[in-house]
Give the backbone structure.
Amino acid sequence: MSKAIIIGAGIAGIATAIRLALKGYQVEVFEAGSIAGGKLSEMKLNDFRFDMGPSLFTMPQYVDELFTLAGKNPSDYFQYKKLDIVCNYFYEDGTRISAFADRNKFAEEMAAKTEDNAASIIRFLEKSKTIYEITNSVFLQRSLHKWSSYFSWQTFKSLIRFPQIDAFRSMNQSIESYFKDYKTIRFFNRYATYNGSNPYKAPATLNVIPHFEQYFGAYFPVGGMYSISSSLEQLARDLGVTFNFNSYVEEIVLDKGRAKAVMVNGLSYGADLIVSNMDVWYTYQNLLKNFAVPERIQKQERSSSALIFYWGINRSFPELEMHNIFFTENYREEFKQIWEDKSIYHDPTIYVNISSKSKSDDAPKGSENWFTMINVPSNTGQNWDELIADARKNMIDKLSKNLGCDISQHISCEEILDPRSIDSKTFSYQGSLYGSSSNSQFSAFLRHANFTSKIEGLYFVGGSVHPGGGIPLALLSAKIVDELLN
Ligand code: FAD
């Protein structure tokens, strides 16, 4: 039986372990942390439970697919519910918009609360769908780095329609051509942050993202976001995969251009196949002796990072949904500060996620667990302690003003995650959430491939490599590696 070693038990590492076990490999996973999930893990703080990283769950079919492939009934392991209201948006002028899952209801809500009409919203969502239909099979479902990917009827059809993906203007330029109200424009520009990019720079092709949320829906797992990781870990174990925790891989050992073994705590573990779920930057820098980080990867701008306050809140707020956005007054300036000044704007857009709205045992009765996050630049040596202290004050002031009560009086416990700790906890270079940014039209082609022609038997999965970050794409990276091995 051939042996495969996976470096890292992030969601992509676990998905790869499952796929390789189903291919007949004996699979062993080495994970530096004490639990599986990587960014998709959980934390207990007093009587509160928090999902540490992702909170928005789209494309659940990619999780279900793994159970189905293994001949199991997905719902025996993992259940989730569709959200009727995806997110509540709060604007500085007092406008509140609910993003309904139902497309027509959502378009009517936008028309009622903005100067734009329902038909323009529908037209934009149709455009988003068209981009998805053209890009899905070419950019997301297969390797961009194998000639064979380009010789299919599907790809040929997509390439003919290529001009429609709108790659040569920014997301914001395209959105402004559809809408006149700044509230609608801001609403759709925010989707750039779903992969850590800047809407004033990122190609309008990324206007595909609303389609994922509006067409396929947003969901919440019954057991919390962490149950995505834990249920897949359980499936992997049921298929015979072995997990070693607190086991940092120190080196990938090469022999005549082939990956042969990994070193963990000074011991060598041999394998026929090695898959790295570690950020590709650190894989080169820390694990591959005699290999520098490829120049192409070094030149790529990193995606943004996040500053998160996990707050136990000792009262409840009926006006809040599970997902809530409190917009800044000046979106362009906020992105300028993040991307050009590498700093934090004094009036940041705040995301408040409250999983206890759906999973009541995540907080004591009458309380709520607030995951309070802002987008920040990746870590390039800023004075974070100072930035965090200022941001905390500004965020509390803004939330207090919007909600009409002094939030600081209701924070009963707190934990903080910032770019430095995202980096040190999950080995994500500079604490970037999604590997490299997608701020250029060439980003998709510049991301590292899922293999390297320089080292046989070594593959790469996860948010830092093709096709990109976020749970759905990380899961697709495992699928692409699976197909590369056919
Ligand atoms: P990771 O989760 O980074 O896992 C890598 C694992 O490898 C880690 O467990 C690490 O400890 C381990 N490892 C690394 N090096 C070694 C080594 N040498 N030896 C052993 N183990 C090693 N995505 C969404 O879809 N929706 C969201 O709402 C969303 N929000 C986010 C919010 C935050 C705050 C963060 C941090 C991320 C968010 N994301 C979101 C992105 C999403 O979490 C990631 O894209 C995805 O989880 C990445 O999974 P991964 O498997 O690539 O890597």
Residues 7-13, 30-33, 38-40, 53-56, 248-249, 277-278, 306, 308, 422, 426-428, 433-434, 462-463, 469-471, 474 surround flavin-adenine dinucleotide (CB under 6 Å). Residues 118-140 form the longest helix (23 residues).
